[in-house]
Amino acid sequence: DDLLRHRVKIMRIVGIFPESVAYVVKESPGVLTARIEESLPDKIKCFEELNVKPKFTKDEILHVLTKCPTIIAAYTVESLQKKVQFLEEELKFNKHHIKNIILKQPSVLTFSNDALKEKWNYCFEKINVSPTGIARCPRVFQCSLKRIKERHLYLKHLGLIKDETIIDDYGLGLIVTPSDKRFAEKVAKMSLDEFDEFRDELDLSSKE
Question: Looking at the predicted structure, is the pLDDT value of residue 110 above 90?
């Protein structure tokens, strides 16, 4: 119990608000069993020193850590640095892009390189979104590749976009709208039933 209290105290000392501490513990109970008294200050220092523009402020770092508490509990400084290196070298995001991605969608730091690369490739090669457009809509990495494909192909099927259509970050944001119902009705201007029917046909054709 003393150790648990000590770990909660560590989170408070680095500046995480009491209500945020409660959220962090609820979302990622591992923070109470991980040796965060050693690792948390190092992670904050890691974010402060990341090669991004503009540099992370203390408040921004705390926002990232509380929005994705798994980073506190389960990821090493080395793994975070390697992920940022991957975003820059493999996905060709610049220092401004990386800052925006981490700030808006910190869970990107916890996704596998393969999953990130697959989604990046599909958006860049098939949907015609620029790296800047992808960086401005990092929610795309939270979406499954299957869902991205289904929605993109549905919009093509309806004639709303063509192979040569250039999609910006706003358009990509519409494609990865969290709700299927909202996507069908507001973006595709069809009913959810019609969209579901199309997806069923896609599933069938992919199994043949």
Answer: yes
